[in-house]
Amino acid sequence: MLADTTGLSKVVIGAAIEVHRVLGPGLLESVYSRCLARELGSRGLPFRREVIVPVIYKGERIDHGFRADMIVSDRLLVEIKCASGLLAIHRAQTITYLRLLGLKHGLVMNFHSRRLVDGIWSVVA
After folding, report:
1. What is the reported pTM?
2. What integer pLDDT is reported at residue 8 of this predicted model?
């Protein structure tokens, strides 16, 4: 599955770098999410934003309001952050979302980084 998303992740990272190049750091996650959506759309990639993450506990669906920032081509989870640095909890959240969504690969992107490439984590569940 990772091989299936390697090329896709490169395109998504390229789109995110373009957003960061134009806007720079310091804005809200929602701004970067909308602009990344526009970039992905211009590249012809299908995506969904604010995807509900279902939690099933002992066979019962628990509606709690968890939402993944973006899923690209129904294969790649993208979590957008604007934080002073990425933390272990960001990786843990992403791994949990991947498991709950039945996906294998995700990207955590910290748009608060001076250089976006320094604020990207690839996460495999």
Report:
1. 0.92
2. 96
